[in-house]
Amino acid sequence: MAALVEIRDLAIAYGKAAPVLAGFSATIERGSFTAVVGPSGVGKSTLLRVLSGLTAPAAGRVERLSRSEQSRSEQGRRPVALVFQEARLLPWRRVIDNVTFGLEGLGLSKAERLARARETLDMVGLAEMAGRWPHQLSGGQRQRINLARALAVQPDLLLLDEPFSALDAITRQGLQDELLRVWRETGTTMLFVTHDLDEAVYLADRVVLLGGRPAGVVRDFTVDLPRPRLRDTGAFGETVRSIRAALSESVSDGGGI
User: Cis link prior to 79 (omega < 30° from 0)?
Assistant: First the structure.
C-alpha cells in the first residue's frame, strides 16, 4: 500500500514541561487499520490531536501525502476527521443536523449536505433516527452518530480516540463489527487509540505500542490473523498475550495499562 501519512521525529509536550513523547516516527499506509496502545499519560490522545491539526507538536513534522486541504474542501471533503471518546453531539440540533455540522463551510448546498448526511446515517444503520434529538438516543446510537458525522466529510484519515470505552461489552463488540464493516466499504485509513488489547487485535492489522519516559515506539506488531477474527482462538489469545507482555515490560512497575 502507498503511504498516506509520514510522521518524522515528532515530540509532544504539555506547556513548558518535558516532552511526554519524543522521537516518534511512523508511516501510515493508505487504507490501513492501525491501533495505538500504551499506558495512561503516554500521549496517545494528544498524538491524535496533533495528527488532526488541533494541537501543534513541540518538534518534528507530520506530512499528509494527499492533495491540498484547499482543493479537497472545494470537493466537500476534509483530509482528516477525529472521533472523540464522548459523542459530543449538539443537543439543540436533530441527528441529521448534527451529521451535517462538519459539512458546513465546505461549499456544499443544503441539499447536498442533507444527502451526504442521509448516506452516512444509512451507512451506520441509523437512517430512521434522522429526525430524533440526541437525548432520545442510547449511548451506542450516539457513538454511531458521532462516527457518521466524521464519515460525512469523507476523510482520507479517520482518527478514533477510544470511541467505545464507555459502552457496555455487548454494545462495544457490536460497534467494533460496525466499524470494520465501514472500513471495508469505504477504504478509509483508520488510526484507533485504545486501552483494550483484545479490541486492538480484533480491529487492527498493526498495533503500535508506546511506552517509556519520554514515550516512543516500544514495539510495532503486525497482526497476522485472518478476517473475520474470532476472539476464542489460540492464535488470537497468543497475539494479545505477546502485546501485553511487551506492554508490561515497558511500564516500570510491570502493571500494564
Answer: no
- Contact (CB, 8 A) for 140 and 171: yes
Contact 76, 18 (CB under 8 A): no
SS (H, E, C) 73-104: HHCCCCCEEEECCCCCCCCCCCHHHHHHHHHC
For the segment 156-210, what is each residue's pLDDT rounded down to a tens digit? 999 999 999 889 999 999 999 999 999 999 999 999 999 999 999 999 999 999 9
Of 201, 165, 208, 197, which Cα lies nearest the Cα of 180?
Answer: 201
3-state helix, strand, coil in the chain (%, to 5): 40, 25, 40
Q: What is the pLDDT of residues 64-122, one digit of tens each?
A: 875 544 444 446 889 999 999 888 899 999 999 999 998 998 999 999 999 999 999 99
- d(C-alpha 164, C-alpha 172), whole Å: 6
Distance CA 24, CA 217 (A): 7
Helix (H) / strand (E) element for 23: namely strand 21-29
CB atoms within 10 A of CB 70: 7
Confidence (pTM) = 0.91
| Residue given cell 449538539 in the structure block | 90
Q: Residue 223 has what DSSP assignment?
A: -
Distance (Å, whole) CA 241 – CA 198: 9
Burial class of 81 by CB neighbour count within 10 A (0 to 12, 13 to 18, 19+): buried
